[in-house]
Specification:
With 123 residues, the protein is of the alpha+beta class. 29% of the residues lie in helices and 39% in strands. The chain is globular and about 45 Å long.
């Protein structure tokens, strides 16, 4: 596996640990529908939380969360709708981004951006 794939997997694992520590119940990881993938689907306080994990080795060119484009949002929303129908979930949905960046010492920092986007952002 390529180094960037290893880093991405490590970032997702850290995001899951972070979410669990903060009271989230992980429902599924790497949910796929057509061309879309949702990194993490969780539940907290009667909400379904759709989480996109973005990791970068540096923020020189852009912050990780800036890599979530309109086309990516459309794919995530499409997959989220399919998940809700497939598993008959009738709860409020929130879309979050977890950004993972190393600091100057090499420690990975997590930033959890709640309500990072909505279905309206895909238009």
């Amino acid at each position: 596996m390529a180094t960037h794939n290893d880093f991405g997997k490590k970032a997702e694992d850290l995001a899951v640990e972070f979410l669990i520590k903060n009271g989230y119940k992980i429902l599924i990881r790497n949910y796929r529908f057509q061309k879309a993938e949702i990194d993490i689907i969780a539940e907290k306080e009667n909400q379904i939380i759709i989480i996109e994990v973005k990791a970068r080795s540096t923020d020189v060119f852009m912050l990780p969360q800036e890599a979530v484009t309109k086309s990516k949002i459309k794919l995530i929303i499409s997959a989220a709708n399919h998940y809700l129908e497939e598993f008959n979930k009738d709860k409020e949905v929130r879309f979050d981004i977890i950004s993972v960046l190393p600091d100057q010492k090499g420690n990975l920092n997590i930033e959890h951006i709640e309500d990072a986007f909505t279905a309206f952002d895909a238009n």
